[in-house]
Design goal:
This protein is mainly α. It has one domain. Helix content is 96%, strand content 0%. The termini are far apart. The relative contact order is 0.06.
């Protein structure tokens, strides 16, 4: 009976870990995309500022 109780608990934990991994991956991807977009924006703004200054 203890083994029957143990299996669903491990399955639940594994499922929770998978969901956590997906969420963590989404957050990391979002931060990466945001950083990339900001870097491009700064580079673009800088280039236009330099061109305008010249």
């Amino acid at each position: 009976m203890t083994d029957q109780m143990k299996i669903p608990a491990e399955e639940e934990l594994r499922r929770r870990n998978r969901r956590f991994g997906i969420v963590l991956g989404a957050i990391v991807a979002g931060i990466f995309v945001l950083t990339f977009a900001i870097a491009i924006f700064i580079h673009y703004a800088d280039a236009h500022h330099v061109a305008g200054g010249s």
